[in-house]
Amino acid sequence: MIAVLVTGSRGKSTVVRMIHRAMVACGLRAYGRITGVIPRTLTPSEEVPILRYSGAHVEEMRWWIASLPPDVQGVVMENSAVSPELQHLAGSWLKPSVTVLTNVRPDHQDMWGDGEDNAAKALLKGIPKGSTVVLGQEVSSCPLAMALIDEAKWDVVVAPATVGDTSYRASNESIALKACEVLGLDREVCLRAIRSLEADLADFSLLKTDRGELAFAFSANDLTTTEDLFRSLGWRREDATVLFNHRRDRPERFRVFRPWLDREGWKERIVIGDRPFFIGRSRYVRCLGAEDLKALVDSKGLVFGCGNVVYGAPLELKLFRESLETLILG
Name one Pfam family in it (predicted). Predict the structure, then answer.
């Protein structure tokens, strides 16, 4: 059996889905596990939601590995641990031959601390000894990460930089394809499979309402990715309303985003979801569901949504729009 562990700040679920699709295309009975917007098991033929009766727990990874069928030939799993002290558990349970590190962007500042270096220190604790490490191109530009990797003496392969396409999709494809090559899978079969993978529910997209547009960037979570996604739209900042979806159990994320929200240039700044204790220059709007959010977007025109995706109105609106499109397209 071949096993792959995927870790990093951003892109884990997407890379897991890509590698799993490639394994299946190569004829393997492959299973995957992602814990993004909707935690799922990826089987050789479908995606099955993981039903939780309480909050997420690191032990879910061990349970999931133990539940795999005896005829499994390939496994790819996202490391869902957040605490630095728990990062090593996924590798000790899965025992991967290949570990993928997508990037080391700052996140989970309440546990990791601020900045790229602290993110790198936390995430590198999750790479087991003896595993070949596939790095996203971005990791190779972090001096501390590379110094720690060199010190650990892992066998390292860096995914090539994308040429002519700087999108996150292209970057994730490059990482997934390099992991498949390291596993010895057919490159052309894997490339076709990876590129055929449809976008996931929370992937960045532009939702059009009757009189407005909502840039759905709620799943980005970190400032670098969020700003890159905004720039990719070609919108002028003074024409756009920035909309932050807040969760009371993620106060550090709002603390990190607040200076960016408060910067000059935005047409308007709005916070929905839970009301923060200190809101800065933003205005809080109570948004109870998809219809409220649609009405808000209609009234503002160009709206850039960020912050948190798995909470309240943004995901409801995305699900509603996708269900409507499915009905229209038959």
Answer: Mur_ligase_M
